[in-house]
C-alpha cells in the first residue's frame, strides 16, 4: 500500500513538473515570439520617412525606431527634426506633463491635497502609484514630485480634483489648455495616460505643451529629480523614496545639459519619452513615441547630438541689414534731448534663428507680419530657410521714452503704446485708454537742424530774389541813361545844322 502511494506521489510529481515545464516553455515561446515581433516592428519603423530630411540643404537626421519623433527648440518652436510629428498616438504617462503644467498654473505649491476614494481606486493597483490611502494628504508640491518622479497615477487624479473640483472638469481644462497652446492632434480623457482609445496626442502637440512646461523653473527642477524622499507627517504616516525611471535623469546614462523629462509606457503605446536638454545656446525638446526599451533613451541621445552638432544660433538684431530701423527720422528718443538719439522702433535683441551650420544669415528669406500682438510689438519679421521656418523677431516700440518731450498733454505717468497694424507715422499713436493720453515723440536735435536748414533755404531765396531784383533795376537804370545820352546827342546834332 505504501509502495503504491509512493508511486502515485511520484507520478503526480512528474506530472506537475511536466505541466509546469510545459507552461514555462509555452510562456517562453510566447514571450520570445512577441519580442521577435516587436523587434521586427521596430526595424520596420526605421524605414519610415523623415520629413525634415526632405528639406533642401538640411542636415540629414538619424534613422530611429520610433514611430514618431520631434526635436524642437523650447523657446521658439523651431523644428529641427520631424518624423510623423502629426500622427495621433497614445502618449501613456507623458500625459502627466500637461497635468503638472495645469497644476502649477492654477494651484499653490503649499496647499494640501487630500486623496479621495475616487482618486485612489479608479486606477489599477498594479500600475504606477505612490501608495497613498484614502483621506491621506500631502502638499501640491509633493504631489508633483510623486507624479513626475514616481509617475503616480493616483497623485495625478488627486491633483485633478484639487485644481478642477472633479476629474472630469480637470480633463476639460486639459483639452482647453492644449487648444490654447495650438494643439490640433490631441484629445485627453484622463489625467495620467492610462490606455483609452480616445486618449491620444501627437509628438508635435506634446512638444508645444512641453515648451510651456520647461519655461517654468520649478517644473524643470521637479522633472529633473532622480530620487525623492517622502517623510512621515500627521496626514501621511509613511517614510519612503520614489525613484525616477528616466535613465538620462537618474544617471544610468550620462548626458550633458539635461533639464528634465518624463517617461511613459503602456502595452498599446509602448515606450514614450519626453526630454529637455540645453547646450550651445539651444534648449531642445526631444519626444519619441512608440519605441522599445532601451532605444527610447539611445534614440533621444542620437537626436540631441544631431541637433546640437549640426545647427547654430544666429542673433537677428546683430545680423539683420535689410530692415534699417534707424530710418525713422524724427521719431527718435533719448534721455538727453540734444544728445545721441535712439530709435523708438527697434528689433528685439534677444530674438534668434536656428540654421544649419553650413548656412549663414544672408541665405534666409524674410517677411513682415503687421498683425503682431503683445505689448510694444509693432510687427513681426518671420525667417525661413528653403521654405522652412527658422525663427522670428519682433519690431518693438522702445520702452525708455520717459524723458522725451510730449507735445499733447503733459503726464507724469509712464505710458504704454501699442502699434498693431503698420509701422508708418500715421499709426504711431497710443491706443491705450483715450485720445487724451496720446503723445508725439520729437527729437529736438533733429528738429532744430531741420529748422536751421529751412531758415537757410529761405534766406538764400531772399538773397537770390534781391539779386535778381537789383540786377533788373540796374539794367533799367542803364537803359534810361543810355536813352538820355542818345537824346542829347540827337538834340546836339540838330543844332549843329544851324549856323548862328
Question: How would you summarize this macromolecular structure in one to three sentences?
Answer:
This protein has 500 residues and is an alpha+beta fold. It has 11 helices and 19 strands.
Characterize the structure shown.
- There is one protein chain.
- This protein has 500 residues and is an alpha+beta fold.
- It is 38% helix and 20% strand.
- The protein is built from 11 helices and 19 strands.
- The chain has helices at residues 2-45, 96-106, 117-121, 140-150, 153-164, 167-180, 203-213, 217-223, 295-310, 316-319, 444-496; strands at 68-73, 79-83, 112-114, 137-139, 227-230, 240-243, 258-266, 270-279, 282-291, 311-315, 332-333, 342-343, 345-347, 352-356, 365-369, 377-385, 388-397, 405-406, 441-442.
- The longest helix is centred in the C-terminal third of the chain and has 53 residues, at 444-496.
- It is elongated, with a radius of gyration of 39 Å.
Helix content: 25-40%
What is the total tally of β strands?
Answer: 19
- Counting helices, strands and paired strands, the structural category is alpha+beta
Strand order of the largest sheet: 2-1-9-8-7
Succession of helices and strands: HEEHEHEHHHHHEEEEEHEHEEEEEEEEEH
Radius of gyration over all CA atoms, rounded:
39 Å
Largest sheet: 5 strands, antiparallel
**What is the beta-strand fraction?**
15-25%
Helical segment count: 11
Give the low-confidence spans. 327-338, 401-441
Say what oligomer this is: single chain
Global mean pLDDT: 83
Distance between the termini: 202 Å
Amino acid at each position: 500500500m505504501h509502495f503504491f502511494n509512493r508511486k502515485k506521489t511520484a507520478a503526480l510529481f512528474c506530472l506537475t513538473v511536466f505541466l509546469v515545464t510545459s507552461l514555462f516553455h509555452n510562456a517562453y515561446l510566447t514571450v520570445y515570439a512577441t519580442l521577435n515581433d516587436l523587434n521586427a516592428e521596430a526595424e520596420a519603423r526605421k524605414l519610415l520617412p523623415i520629413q525634415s530630411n526632405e528639406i533642401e540643404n538640411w542636415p540629414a537626421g538619424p534613422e530611429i525606431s520610433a514611430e514618431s519623433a520631434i526635436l524642437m527648440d523650447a523657446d521658439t518652436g523651431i523644428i529641427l527634426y520631424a518624423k510623423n510629428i502629426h500622427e495621433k498616438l497614445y502618449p501613456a504617462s507623458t500625459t502627466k506633463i500637461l497635468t503638472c503644467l495645469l497644476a502649477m498654473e492654477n494651484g499653490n505649491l503649499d496647499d494640501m491635497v487630500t486623496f479621495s476614494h475616487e482618486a485612489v481606486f479608479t486606477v489599477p493597483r498594479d500600475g504606477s502609484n505612490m501608495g497613498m490611502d484614502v483621506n491621506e494628504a500631502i502638499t501640491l508640491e509633493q504631489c508633483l514630485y510623486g507624479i513626475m518622479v514616481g509617475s503616480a497615477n493616483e497623485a495625478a487624479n488627486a491633483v485633478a480634483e484639487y485644481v478642477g473640483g472633479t476629474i472630469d472638469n480637470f480633463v476639460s481644462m486639459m483639452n482647453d489648455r492644449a487648444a490654447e497652446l495650438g494643439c490640433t492632434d490631441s484629445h485627453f480623457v484622463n489625467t495620467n495616460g492610462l490606455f483609452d482609445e480616445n486618449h491620444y496626442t501627437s509628438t508635435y502637440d506634446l512638444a508645444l505643451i512641453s515648451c510651456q512646461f520647461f519655461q517654468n523653473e520649478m517644473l524643470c527642477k521637479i522633472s529633473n529629480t532622480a530620487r525623492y524622499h517622502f517623510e512621515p507627517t500627521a496626514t501621511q504616516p509613511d517614510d519612503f523614496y520614489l525613484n525616477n525611471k528616466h535613465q538620462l535623469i537618474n544617471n544610468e546614462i550620462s548626458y550633458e545639459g539635461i533639464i528634465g523629462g518624463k517617461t511613459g509606457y503602456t502595452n498599446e503605446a509602448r515606450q514614450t519619452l519626453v526630454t529637455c536638454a540645453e547646450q550651445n545656446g539651444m534648449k531642445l525638446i526631444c519626444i519619441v513615441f512608440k519605441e522599445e526599451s532601451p532605444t527610447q533613451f539611445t534614440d533621444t541621445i542620437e537626436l540631441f547630438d544631431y541637433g546640437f552638432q549640426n545647427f547654430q544660433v544666429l542673433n537677428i538684431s546683430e545680423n539683420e541689414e535689410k530692415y534699417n530701423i534707424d530710418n525713422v527720422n524724427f521719431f527718435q528718443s533719448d534721455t538727453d534731448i540734444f544728445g545721441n538719439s535712439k530709435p523708438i522702433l527697434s528689433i528685439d535683441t534677444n530674438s534668434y534663428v536656428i540654421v544649419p551650420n553650413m548656412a549663414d544669415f544672408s541665405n534666409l528669406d524674410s517677411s513682415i507680419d503687421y498683425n503682431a500682438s503683445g505689448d510694444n510689438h509693432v510687427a513681426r519679421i518671420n525667417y525661413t530657410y528653403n521654405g522652412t521656418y527658422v525663427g522670428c523677431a519682433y519690431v518693438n516700440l522702445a520702452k525708455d521714452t520717459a524723458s522725451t518731450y510730449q507735445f499733447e498733454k503733459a503726464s507724469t505717468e509712464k505710458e504704454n503704446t501699442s502699434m498693431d497694424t503698420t509701422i508708418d507715422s500715421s499709426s504711431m499713436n497710443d491706443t491705450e485708454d483715450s485720445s487724451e493720453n496720446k503723445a508725439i515723440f520729437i527729437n529736438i536735435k533733429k528738429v532744430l537742424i531741420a529748422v536751421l536748414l529751412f531758415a537757410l533755404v529761405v534766406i538764400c531765396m531772399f538773397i537770390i530774389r534781391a539779386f535778381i531784383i537789383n540786377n533788373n533795376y540796374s539794367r533799367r537804370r542803364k537803359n534810361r541813361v543810355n536813352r538820355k545820352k542818345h537824346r542829347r546827342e540827337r538834340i546836339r546834332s540838330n543844332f549843329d545844322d544851324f549856323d548862328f
